[in-house]
Amino acid sequence: MFGYPGFWQILIVVLLVVLLFGRGKISDLMGDVAKGITSFKKGLKDDETEGSDETVQTLEPGVTGEEASPLHKEKADIS
Asked: Mean pLDDT in runs of 10 for the chain (79 residues)?
C-alpha cells in the first residue's frame, strides 16, 4: 500500500524541519547528541579498565576465597 518515501518527499521533510527549528538549533542538537555518544563510549571504556585493574587471585584447587584471604592480607602487609 505505502512504499518507501522518495527523494523529493525526504527533501521536503528536511526543508520543513530546517524552517521550523532553524539551522542553529539543529546543529546544537546534533552536537549534544554527539557529546552524549562520546560520553557513553568513554563510560564503557572506563568500566572495562576498572574491571582489568582488579587483582585476580589464583587459588589452589579446593581452596575457597575465605581460606585464601588471610594469606592475601599477609602478603599485603609484607609489601
From this structure: 85 91 85 93 84 54 55 50
In whole angstroms, give the CA distance from residue 76 to residue 68.
13
Residue 3: what residue type? G
CA 28 distance to own-chain centroid? 22
Place of cell 587483582: 55
CB 65 within 8 A of CB 59: yes
The pLDDT assigned to 67 comes to: 53
Residue 1 three-state SS: coil
Cα–Cα distance measured from residue 10 to residue 16, given in angstroms and rounded to the nearest whole number: 10
Running DSSP on this structure, what letter comes out for residue 62?
A: T
The set of cell numbers assigned to 15 is 526543508
